[in-house]
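Lab notebook, bench 4. We co-purified these components, and the gel suggests they stay together. Before we commit to crystallization screens, I want a quick structural picture of the whole thing.
Request: model the full complex, all chains together.
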Amino acid sequence: MAGLEDLPVEVSPRYEGERIRSGDMYVELAGPKSFGAELFKVMDHDEVRDGNVEVIGPDIDDMEEGERYPFGIFVKAAGEELEEDVEGVLERRIHEFCNYVEGFMHLNQRDQIWCRVAKKAVEKGFKLEHLGIALRELFKEEFGNVIDAIEVVLMTDEDKVKEFVEYAREVYAKRDERAKELSEEDVDEFYVCLMCQSFAPTHVCVITPDRTSLCGSITWHDAKAAYKIDPEGPIFPIEKGECLDPEAGEYEGVNEAVKEHSGGAVERVFLHSCLEYPHTSCGCFQAVAFYIPEVDGIGIVDREYTGDTPLGIPFSTLAGEASGGEQQPGFVGVSYGYMESDKFLQYDGGWERIVWMPKELKERVKHAIPDELYDKIATEEDATTVDELKEFLEEVEHPVVERWEEEEEVEEEEEKVEEEAAPAEAPTLEVGELPLVPGGGLNVKIVLKNAKIYAEKVIIKRVDKEGGEK
Ligand code: SF4
Ligand SMILES: [Zn+2]
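Here is the predicted assembly.
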């Protein structure tokens, strides 16, 4: 059986940061302009043809340069100790392992994967079959303690990939469903994932039963299972500690862990807020929640949507702003799973504060949105600019509109208070040049040029020659 050393390209963690720009790319697989998915599935021994690597559909030598193809990555594994719980976490490693392959780039996860093969890899003789071998070998190397049998099936045939994506979505849904059975109050431990620190060094993912990782692929159950099979790995438990603010989702243990693992860069995290002390974002988030100051509401945009948000920029630009691992009030990366939590951005007002989402995303998470709000959240069909959005929200009487009224009242109140403190007709003396003649017989003159003098009252009194008041 071929090993890593028999492949025409190198396989090593040092290729992880490699980016393949469109000019250097031979073909693109899956991605926003095509489709695809990846899945790691624990199966019975007799369902896994151990060692088998297969490509269904055209491999690189049958593809046309510069073209785009659908793509599926299906890793099947069996093992005595291997439980379904670990699927999400091992699936997440597909991303990392694919990127070890020289000349192969893998972005995102689940049904959002986006891959590229570099021209220089193809020149060396790289084929998708080699990617399959690399995955098989890397999984065996890292998880040989739990994986007894493994098979990798890669798909580029359009119909096969379509079928596979449907199947994968069912599996994801089941996993996410399970995650909803618990909430933060039910557990004493949360989990931290540091996998993305390779490119976002201060990013610390905190995974709770209510908050799936922002990449969408690791639930609290997944994290727990990951730690069990790989206690030295990038995912480990932390003490929840005292809850400092249940609305915000601020926990003593989270603050401590985030501070420690971000090297002190982040000291405080509100797990359920986009506006204050938000969770950091590395860049793999499924969606971004972003504050729209003009309407005092929050928009959400996911990776699938390629048009502009009401801010006048698309997901990719917003994602650039929000990523990198720094804490940025007003931006937070979120997963679809988190949108389904009862605690979703509850500190900011939850769904009552959400004002805009792409139509498809809204449809996708429909069951999580309270019925009475569903029609009040604008999509690209209702508003593509802030002005249109404002108009729409007013028309449908979105709950944020009440906030505007309250704000106006507060502003009016403030104005009133100011007026009382400083009447508009407060006497102001404007002088071009005002000589001040200090006393004490000093022979100097101080000149204030163009000074505006404000006084509560101006009293003009005649002074007699001796200086005494009359
Ligand atoms: S986004 Fe978070 S949970 Fe997902 S792999 Fe990166 S660090 Fe881990
Ligand atoms: Zn990440």
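The longest strand covers residues 71-78. Worth comparing against the SEC data before the next meeting. The radius of gyration is 30 Å.
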